[in-house]
Specification:
The structure holds 2 protein chains of 2 kinds. Chain A is α+β, with helices and mostly antiparallel strands. Chain A has one domain (9-15, 22-103): Beta-grasp domain (Ubiquitin-like (UB roll)). In chain A, 20% of the residues lie in helices and 25% in strands. The termini of chain B are close together. Chain B has one domain (88-391): Methylamine Dehydrogenase, Chain H (7 Propeller). Chain B is an all-beta fold. The chains are: A alpha+beta, B mainly beta. Chains A and B meet through helix 1 of A and strand 6 of B.
């Protein structure tokens, strides 16, 4: 897949935490075809469409919001609290950097 | 020859323990879903190779797993790994939405919070899975915040049976220390329209019309920590058990007090008798002797471990009140484990096998109805639930 095919589609790299990799049966990183504008929300839409077993595990079903103990990082910046419709950095859109989905170091019930 | 399969849910994964009918030599497989909390696994009585599991995590939420080969392999119903989702309409097997629709639902009320204020109803996890007695594709899920869900497609999708949550007393329900969980689901084998559930802390409820309507069945329960100790709802019921041969007789381990009902829960009376403490979580009934019951007393609601450093199962052969300590093969010194509410089970072999798991990661088995015990495994993660399947 090229990174900028016709129609504004880009190849976005998403790095997943260990347990979500196991659920989806994938390696540390997945490649997704995402249509511009490239936002976290649209990237997660593409992720959940390709790997429906991940629905509800990153975003709450009912609110569509990030689950409290997950974080988003891009290009060394914390995107956890950015609006889901804000466009991601150019390096992520160009495929040079990945969107990181990371479990909070503290969190969960144990 | 008969065999048994013990399904163990722990704080860090699931394990399957297998043995022949002698129940002396065991094989241990797992961990399955390593690193996740497995609140409960249970097999279908119609097709024992079909097992449902509740997998959850504070990070990633609720996931449902199903095995169709007796626990060897697992899949998320509706979203199998390796298949192209474009080829099939994926079903959200981990979507548990309270039904507040006009057509089939009930309004989403609030419930009482720890401090007495009202708090929104929020789904957190599945505590208990109860497969149908007649249809391997049908399974009930008891969830936190308390409600009852049902799947009729093998766990691929779930619908709330809202008659329970919408009973009308919801604003008086409150969470116990573990959350406001629906942890017990019992189907009457003589009449599947009749079911029992229990909620901590709301109490026990019964339906006689296949989950359309429910009534609280808490008459006789006394909970001194409540403003009205004999209120219709609000009691912290820890577990309820039934022997299917006598479905009108129920036994209950309440927060404090061991209780018994002889009229399908309409009235309860205390049968704690000579127990060293009547606080505890588990209770179960012998498979063939409906007056023989088992509990594991815990020191107190502030000290969740067995009293005196001794792990003892207590057995009553008189349906309560008169209890004997069963300790042969169990640690009788420096033991401070807890046994959670879904962590005891009985098989249906002769002699009846009893199994329980501890917060210390031990799973103990008795192949002689509790007279003697031996550990199957000693060092699992903390055990959350134990179920056993008796296989032909």
């Amino acid at each position: 897949m090229t990174n900028q095919p016709a129609g504004g589609e880009h190849t976005i790299h998403v790095a997943l935490p260990f347990h979500l990799r196991n659920l989806a049966g994938v390696g540390p990183e997945v490649e997704l075809a995402v249509h511009a504008p490239i936002t976290i929300g649209r990237t997660l839409d593409a992720l959940e469409a390709r790997y429906p077993m991940l629905r509800g595990t990153i975003r709450e079903y009912h609110t569509g919001q990030r689950r409290p103990f997950l974080r988003f990082f891009a290009c060394g910046e914390d995107w956890s609290h950015e609006p889901l419709d804000r466009e991601l950095p150019e390096a992520v859109i160009a495929g040079r950097e990945s969107l990181l989905v990371i479990g909070a170091i503290a969190g969960g019930s144990n | 020859m008969s065999s048994v399969r013990v399904l163990v849910g722990t704080k860090k994964g699931a394990f399957v323990l297998s043995s022949d009918g002698k129940r002396k030599d065991w094989t241990v497989s797992g961990p399955f879903f390593a690193g996740w909390e497995i609140y409960h696994l249970k097999g279908s009585p119609v097709n024992p190779d079909r097992i449902y599991a509740s997998q959850s995590s504070g990070w990633f939420g609720q996931v449902i797993q199903r095995s169709d080969d007796g626990g060897k392999t697992w899949l998320q119903p509706g979203a199998p790994i390796g298949e192209n989702p474009a080829a099939w309409p994926p079903k959200p097997s981990n979507k548990f939405t309270y039904d507040s629709s006009d057509a089939t639902g009930k309004p989403l009320t609030t419930h009482q919070w720890y401090d007495g204020t009202q708090h929104p109803w929020e789904f957190k996890r599945v505590w208990h899975m109860e497969p149908s007695l007649s249809d391997p594709n049908a399974v009930y899920a008891g969830v936190e915040d308390a409600a009852l869900f049902k799947s009729t497609d093998g766990g691929e999708s779930w619908s709330e049976l809202s008659g329970l949550r919408g009973h009308g007393t919801g604003p008086h329900w409150q969470p116990g220390a573990g959350g406001m969980c629906l942890h017990t689901v019992i189907i009457d084998p003589s009449n599947e329209q009749r079911m029992y559930i229990a909620i901590s802390a709301a109490g026990a409820f019964r339906t006689d019309d296949g989950c359309k309507t429910w009534k609280p069945i808490n008459k006789g329960l006394v909970s001194p920590m409540m403003p009205n100790p004999t209120a219709e709802v609000g009691h912290c019921v820890h577990h309820v058990a039934m022997n299917g041969a006598r479905p009108n007789v129920l036994f209950m381990q309440k927060h404090w007090d061991v209780m018994r009902s002889d009229d399908a829960g309409d009235n309860w009376r205390e049968v704690s008798g000579n127990l060293p403490t009547d606080f505890g979580f588990v209770i179960d009934v012998h498979a063939h002797e409906p007056e023989t019951i088992y509990v594991v007393p815990i020191k107190s609601d502030s000290e969740h471990f067995v009293p005196e450093g001794k792990l003892r199962v207590f057995r009553s052969r008189t349906g309560g009140n008169e209890w004997e300590a069963l300790e042969k093969g169990l640690p009788q010194k420096d033991c401070y484990v807890n046994i959670l509410r879904d962590a005891m089970a009985v098989d249906s072999l002769d002699k009846c096998g009893i199994y329980f798991g501890t917060s210390g990661g031990q799973v103990y088995a008795s192949s002689d109805a509790g007279d003697t015990w031996a550990p199957i495994v000693r060092d699992l993660p903390a055990v959350l639930s134990v179920e056993v399947q008796t296989l032909a």
